[in-house]
Design a protein that fits this description.
seven-stranded mixed β-sheet; alpha+beta
């Protein structure tokens, strides 16, 4: 609009419209930068190496064996039982030792699905029934994904053991393997 038209119609041009466009683009670019870089900033601040295991949680040794007892593998595990611990799981961990894992327990046994949100390392997930037998193995679950993982249908899950991705295959752990009786005792619920 030309200045002489503005005076004739009584409408004044908006001198700040150019600045408003610039402000919009600056805010838009800053917002996109935050969306792109904030997760990495949060991850770098909250990343916790799993080799420095969480000593506030019970840390027993858990042994998985073949049905005939010829293969036995012991792992140090963090046992999580509270909803808060279960929600956090191995999120933001940057590494996991070969002999370490995290055990999620469910009392009573129930349908369970897991996901890899904010989990930075690939994991194997071993799903156990009420008798401590592996009923399903999710191998090499991809980091930072929300795909539901777990047995579809079938027996209820009593526990899930998360270990380093590829470790189950390396150790020859397979469906039908089971926890030793001593390890089964670690699944007992903790009373607050």
């Amino acid at each position: 609009m030309k200045p002489e038209q503005a005076s004739a119609t009584g409408i004044k041009p908006r001198p700040d419209s150019h600045m408003a466009r610039w402000a919009f683009w600056i805010i838009a670019v800053a917002g996109m930068a935050m969306i792109l870089f904030l997760p990495n900033l949060v991850r770098s601040v909250t990343a916790v190496p799993a080799t420095a295991l969480n000593t506030s949680m019970p840390m027993p040794s858990l042994t998985v064996e073949s049905p005939d007892g010829t293969r036995r593998h012991s792992l140090r595990v963090e046992i999580v039982r509270t909803d808060e611990e279960k929600a956090r799981g191995l999120m933001f961990r940057t590494e996991l030792a070969q002999d370490a894992g995290m055990l999620f327990t469910y009392d009573p046994p129930q349908s369970v699905v897991m996901w890899m949100k904010n989990t930075l390392i690939p994991l194997d997930m071993l799903f156990f029934d009420a008798n401590g037998t592996i009923i399903y193995i999710e191998r090499e679950a991809a980091p930072e994904t929300l795909n539901p993982r777990g047995p579809s249908g079938g027996p209820a899950v009593r526990a899930v053991l998360e270990i380093k991705g590829g470790l189950a295959a390396k150790l020859g752990i397979q469906e039908g393997d089971r926890l030793t009786p001593e390890s089964l005792a670690n699944l007992a619920p903790i009373k607050p």
